[in-house]
Automatic annotation (TrEMBL):
Recorded superkingdom: Bacteria
Protein species of origin: Leucobacter edaphi
Bias (Low complexity) ranges: 857-882, 946-968
This protein's name: Calcineurin-like phosphoesterase domain-containing protein
Keywords associated with the record: Membrane, Transmembrane, Transmembrane helix
Region Disordered: start-end pairs: 850-884, 932-978
Gene3D superfamilies hit by this protein: 2.60.120.200, 3.60.21.10
InterPro entries, A to Z: Metallo-depent_PP-like, TAT_signal
Lineage of producing organism: Bacteria, Bacillati, Actinomycetota, Actinomycetes, Micrococcales
TM region(s), chain numbering: 986-1006
Length: 1011
């Protein structure tokens, strides 16, 4: 036997029975010394330690070691893992917080104490390492046991038992993520093939001002391998749509171990093979979901030889959903998904915009409030000056806006603009139309504008067919950044008429937590005074501070005195504070349901013990109001931090079914949850608010992504409604064009706002806040009110959520513009009728007469066979300025117009053409006709109206479509510097008239004005 002995460092401290890292290796009288390979015939080893041989508080016994970082500023002798008696621990830090209850620890114990014992800055790490223990050649597993007394602190603290073989990487044996007080812990660890040594470590990481961990009586011994319990590395409640597949990833298996999965129940059960575990003990497989699988939860059991069974359920969501439409028409949306060039976005200028997601952005550029852009979903566009000056523009593809002239559109985008230092930054948004017109829509740069949705009117000019949106950002190095996402064009809802009355009303408050006087004298009187009076009120969680009977009594006394008892329907949701105590989750749930009367409102068929934690009422016969709640929270294990929600499959499938029902009915839904979704409304990026729904997060977010008709009201953060992200349209699916709306209810008690990157602080002097939800013909309006003394209400802000709607009817396709002439020829001084259809309503048009071909002279007519006709004697005369004429016209509501052109008396006879120039500068291809000499030839006389006898169309020259305007304003004929006369009249032959008539009947085309 090999033993290292140490003398006791303090009077009265006993020596260890097996002192200072004693290692026993019984091998027929042979000794196995640490670091010396044991003979092949060595028997299994045993290793024990009780820490009584530690020579000093900050010195580990024997070959034990302590590794720590950032312990400067902590109490001497207590910096990371140290060695003290339980009496010393209690005397130094007092017996509060369960310190005195470690009865299994005797003599000296190893302890890491972090309560009121923090480093100067940041968090500290400390790991206590055992010596390397020799393993026999036949070792297959090692059993490690110890007495443990662990109290969990707040995130990001992490405590775990780890093992490393032959000095390799440490692998986690057990996580300690909840209170585990005064227990004897024991774990079996498989030995990798060929391993010669094992070393165990107790790691206490990322802690500051938390609690403690004490261990004693460590024992390690070789043992037979235990049946493994597969560890689910993928989501504990995997999610897949019908027709998709759920990925299941396992760890904790033995290399080569083969398991199988039974999927489904009863006659529907079938077996899915699981690949053999790899060298790291991992295996992964997919479970295919049939396309016709009904939404719900499918049970799965994973089992096999030498493995404890693992049970889980795959949540199946509905397959592909039909396109969602609302009372607010969306013309175009881009979320930057699908790669850097998605939708042909282009970056120009000296600096390039990046397409990057939020996580990658934070890794590349750090926080500094960049992470507060919680509106962003998936890929976003980033202009960043932290590493170099930025000067660049991002341009959208050309967005069709034809048919969008029935009123102003609205440009919406999620925007996160940060200004840093003294550098001048500039952020501009410009609309560029295909007509060449530009309009600056907005300019920013003087201050931070965090996580807001910009809503900017966009007037489409007449004639514009497309618009390109340009986002230009300039900033000296280190002076700021701009992030944007989810750019869209919509036809916004019209302003709500002042006289409009809601058809259903709900009053809302949350987070009272003992602020009963505020509830009684401000919030409830204020809500009751709003008109029309609501018949339903929702208290969205944290009614009390700790869920005691006494606190419920005080709460309801204030509630009733404030007028709460006047609401016929009273709904309460359970918050985290309703669980705050050590009496067990079911005790607090039962008390909440009994004291609030919520059992009577529970969903039909719900577990009777939890009936009322979730349910539905139809408010005023029109608005479905649903609520959900946690079915378990172990406050002592989590000491006030999350996750807070555990949701049964029964509750989830109930919610899934109700949302499917109302989506089919095209009905808006209001869903209440005290707890929040990660990175949604204000404050939810903070660590304390991450992971409220734990393993239910993925399936809840997937369900809500399929139901944009839902407005979710969440509480918990207390963050003030003045913040830009008080409400968000949350695209849980980054590629979706629409998402559910989430609104923060703020609080009756103290309101909060951001401090630094991750912290929060109270907003001084803020009045308590309550909400009103109103259902109108075309929208659901949620309004936040601050309530002063006596209930005086002041609106803070509101959000209008469009109601679900039918698919918009595509507008009739716009016909191509067509122009016709009232005659094929007109005598000098006569009038020509010009009519047209297919233009924009009220479009301004210019009708022009000019010589054919655009030359300064009258063109010579062609002969019947196309050869040039004989020129008259005037052909030799000097060139004269062309004679032209114009008139203006306005298209009527049907896009038709009628105009009259007067042919100048001095216009030389010959070939001419008429063009119609549109408001955007484009022209309708010219129509040919002839000017004849006054007093000769057909077409003579006012109007030039032809007749069948002179070869014209008897219908030509008649009024255009019904409602066409009268002839446009006449414009004096334009002449050059004097009209050159050519003597006698020029006769227009029948062949010429026929040729011109044929040309006039050609297809009408558009051509763009030359630049």
């Amino acid at each position: 036997m090999f033993r290292t002995t140490r003398t006791s460092r303090l009077t009265g401290r006993r020596r260890g029975v097996l002192a200072g890292g004693a290692i026993l290796a019984i091998a027929g009288g042979l000794l196995a010394v640490p670091g010396t390979p044991a003979p092949a015939s060595a028997a299994p080893v045993e290793f024990v330690e009780n820490f009584d041989g530690a020579p000093a508080a900050d010195q580990a016994p024997g070959d034990w070691t302590v590794e720590h970082t950032n312990t400067a500023g902590m109490k001497p002798g207590w910096q990371g893992w140290s060695f003290h008696s339980t009496d010393e621990i209690v005397a130094t830090w007092d017996g509060a917080g369960d310190r005195s209850s470690f009865s299994k620890g005797t003599g000296l114990v190893a302890v890491v104490e972090s309560d009121k014992n923090r480093p100067t800055t940041g968090n500290f790490d400390s790991t206590l390492w055992s010596p390397q223990v020799q393993l026999s050649s036949s070792a297959r597993a090692v059993e490690i046991g110890f007495d443990s007394h662990y109290k969990q602190g707040q995130a990001p603290q992490n405590a775990r038992l780890v093992a490393r073989f032959d000095g390799g990487d440490a692998k986690t044996v057990q996580n300690f993520a909840a209170n585990r007080l005064n227990e004897s812990a024991k774990f079996t660890v498989d030995v990798p093939a060929g391993a010669k040594t094992v070393q165990f470590g107790w790691s206490y990481l990322q802690s500051s001002n938390n609690w403690f961990w004490m261990i004693d009586n460590v024992r390690a011994v070789e043992a037979a391998p235990a049946a493994v319990t597969p560890v689910l590395e993928s989501a504990r409640k995997p999610v897949a749509p019908a027709g998709g597949a759920a990925r299941i990833e396992l760890s904790g298996l033995r290399a080569g171990q083969q398991l199988s999965a039974s999927v489904g129940a009863g006659s529907a059960a079938h077996t899915v093979p699981v690949p053999a575990a790899n060298a790291d003990g991992r295996a992964a497989f997919d479970v295919a979901i049939p396309a016709d699988q009904a939404p719900g939860v499918i049970p799965v059991r994973i089992s096999g030889p030498d493995a404890n069974p693992l049970d889980l359920g795959i949540t199946v969501l509905a397959g592909k959903q039909p396109a969602y439409h609302s009372s607010e028409q969306q013309f175009w949306h881009s979320g930057f998904e699908g790669g850097p060039a998605q939708g042909e976005w282009k970056s120009t200028g000296a600096s390039a915009w990046e397409m990057i997601d939020r996580a990658a952005s934070l890794e590349k550029y750090g926080t500094d409030r960049r992470h507060a852009f919680t509106r962003a979903s998936g890929t976003m566009a980033v202009a960043e000056s932290s590493k170099a000056a930025f000067d660049g523009a991002l341009s959208s593809p050309a967005i069709p806006v034809t048919g969008a002239t029935g009123g102003p559109l609205e440009l919406r985008l999620d925007s996160h603009l940060l200004r840093r230092g003294d550098g001048a930054t500039s952020a501009k948004i410009t609309a560029i139309y295909d007509t060449g017109a530009r309009a600056e829509l907005a300019a920013y740069g003087a201050e931070d504008r965090e996580s807001e949705q910009l809503r900017i009117p966009l007037d489409i000019p007449s004639g514009a067919k497309t618009v390109t949106l340009e986002f230009a950002f300039t900033a000296p190095q280190g002076s700021g950044s701009w992030r944007i996402d989810d750019v869209e064009l919509v036809r916004p809802l019209a302003p709500l008429a002042e006289a409009a009355q809601p058809s259903a009303v709900v009053d809302v408050f949350s987070d009272v937590q003992g602020s009963n006087l505020r509830l009684q004298s401000q919030v409830l009187p204020g809500l009751r005074a709003l008109q029309p009076a609501a018949k339903t009120v929702v208290a969205n969680g944290d009614l009390t501070s700790q869920g005691t009977d006494f606190q419920y009594t005080n709460y309801f006394n204030a509630f009733n005195r404030g007028g709460g008892d006047q609401y016929p329907t009273k709904i309460s949701t359970i918050g985290n504070h309703e669980f705050f105590g050590a009496n067990g989750s079911e005790t607090y749930i039962s008390r909440f349901l009994d004291r609030t009367g919520m059992r009577a409102l529970g969903a039909e068929g719900a577990d009777p013990a939890h009936a009322g934690l979730w349910g539905e009422v139809l408010v005023d016969g029109q608005l479905p109001v649903l609520w959900i709640g946690s079915e378990h929270h172990d406050y002592p294990s989590h000491v006030g931090s999350g996750p807070f929600v555990e949701m049964s499959d029964q509750q989830f499938t109930w919610l899934q079914g109700r949302l499917a029902h109302w989506r089919e009915q095209n009905t808006p839904v209001v869903l209440f949850s005290h707890h929040v979704f990660n990175d949604s409304v204000s404050g939810t990026y903070a660590r304390f608010y991450q992971g409220d729904f734990s393993s239910d997060t993925a399936r809840l977010e997937g369900l809500l992504a399929q139901n944009p008709n839902v407005t979710v009201l969440t509480s918990h953060t207390h963050w003030a409604p003045e913040l830009n992200d008080w409400s968000v349209e949350q695209r849980f699916d980054p590629a979706a064009k629409h998402g559910p709306t989430i609104v923060n209810t703020a609080a009756v008690t103290t309101q909060y706002g951001p401090v630094g990157d991750w912290e929060e602080g109270p907003v001084a002097g803020a009045d308590p806040v309550g909400l009103r939800v109103g259902l109108y013909e075309d929208r659901l309006r949620v309004t936040a009110y601050a309530f002063g003394a006596g209930g005086a209400a002041k609106e803070v802000k509101h959000i209008d959520v469009p109601r679900p709607g039918e698919a918009p009817v595509d507008p009739e396709p716009q016909p191509e513009p067509a122009v016709s002439l009232g005659a094929t020829s007109v005598a000098q001084g006569g009038e020509l009728a010009v009519t047209g259809t297919g233009f924009q309503a009220d479009e301004q048009l210019t009708v022009t007469l000019a010589p054919a071909g655009g030359s300064g002279d009258s063109a010579d007519p062609a002969s019947a066979d196309g050869a040039p006709a004989a020129r008259s004697a005037r052909a030799a005369a000097p060139a004269a300025s062309p004679v032209t004429a114009e008139t203006r016209a306005t298209a009527n509501a049907d896009g038709a117009f009628r105009a009259t052109l007067t042919v100048p008396a001095e216009a030389p006879a010959g070939a001419y053409e008429v063009t119609v120039r549109r408001a955007d500068g484009t022209t309708v291809a010219p129509l040919a006709f002839a000017v004849t000499a006054s007093g000769t030839g057909p077409g003579e006389g006012p109007g030039g109206t032809p007749s069948p006898e002179n070869g014209g169309d008897a219908g030509a020259g008649t009024d255009p479509a019904p409602g066409s305007p009268a002839a446009g304003e006449k414009v004096p004929a334009k002449t050059g510097g004097g009209l050159a006369t050519t003597g006698g009249p020029v006769l227009v032959t029948a062949a010429l008239l026929a040729a011109l008539a044929a040309a006039a009947g050609g297809v009408v085309l558009l051509r763009r004005r030359a630049a």
